[in-house]
Amino acid sequence: MRLDKSLLCIGITLALSACGGSDSGGTDNSGGTNNDDGYAFCSVEDQNQRFFEYMKDDYFWADQLQDSLDPEAFDDVYAVLEELRVQEDRYSYILTEEEYDQLFVSATYFGFGFSMEQISESRVKFRFVYDDSPADAAGIDRADELIAIEGVAVSELLANGEFNDALGPNEEGLSREITWQKPDGTEQTEVLSKVEVETNTVMGAQTYQLDGETVGYFTLDSFINRTGDDLNNAFDLFAAEGINHLVIDVRYNGGGLIRYANQVATQAAGINVQGETFLEYRFNEQNSSNNQSIDFSLVDGVEQLDLDRVFVLTTGSSCSSSEIIINSLSPHIEVVTVGEPTCGKPVGQQPEELCDKITFAINFETVNSEGEGKYYDGIAPNCSVEDEIVGDWGSSEDPLTAAANTYISSGSCPAASASAETKKSAQKRSFVTPIYNMKDKRESIQ
After folding, report:
1. Which helix (H) or strand (E) element contains residue 229?
2. How far apart are CA 143 and CA 124, in angstroms?
3. Whole-prediction pTM value?
4. E strands within 13-151?
């Protein structure tokens, strides 16, 4: 597999060593002992030792690590990461090559094409639906409630601990009868079959009228290789409609490629940020020669809107590149954040190959043109509103969208409110353990 080191080098043109190139042996799978420590290439001990050496050089908090490590004392490199992780680091992780390819390259998986969230002990709602998926074709929308699987009530499946298995493995052709309920109370039942689903990153792009002006809205779910094209489709619509206001919904966006955060910000603000600094990358002390400032850039973008104010919808699942949109635009235009505090990830990572794995250890932080960053406690919203799954993307029923609309109309935030459902948010949990931890989401994807 060829690793695209620019993925989380974020468009910086750096030498291999700056992207974490290891000089403590190669990725030869021959089983020989061609390294300084006498361990077979890609053996557990070899991976543990080389990962430690890499961390001592490139880890953002390298100065806090111990001087040495016994590679034979750990079962695998995942255990080494947990040993080395500092208190501030909630975000370093390791993927297999297959997981990396699924997440960042192919952006596909086998499933029905929906994401779910448990909103109480006995209820499950759909968080979103991917375009052109079996769920989309069946007419399932965000805020619909899942009622039954194969005729068995969701409440019963949850009570008996059987929900995880009810939808079956993500294998092509596997079918299930699904019953769901629309917000108006009507129920529908369809047999869905799992297919290879493409994970579109922009959802619900639309325009609507508010007090005689045009508002553009879209949800940005992640920043991956296809995001540039997805954004262009949305901004083509906004430019054609001549929007006056823009609402960017990143409430569940756990981050990804920073170059597309740059594209979003630049397409939205246009001439207001031309020639200005988008962000600065800061590495650890021994790699400080790699520090670099990056200007606002369209990247793969075409249309730009030249807006002097944007609205950004956030929750605790809004991380990393989502937060960079807010932090980088704030010195240049007005950014009104609506929702809940973001997750607090002012740091990033570059991928590094390690045998059949890709490591993503934190090795830089980002600051804006004013040198502002370090928001480990998250970015607090201007308008504090709790997220609740009660309407589709851009719906006036959605509390975050409604609050943004109130601000557009009145110039101020509505009073914060919490419903019975959102007060139960502590009960929300995943049904399926994600294969990665970059996105801090409380959902399962099927």
Report:
1. helix 227-241
2. 10
3. 0.84
4. 93-96, 108-111, 114-118, 124-129, 145-149
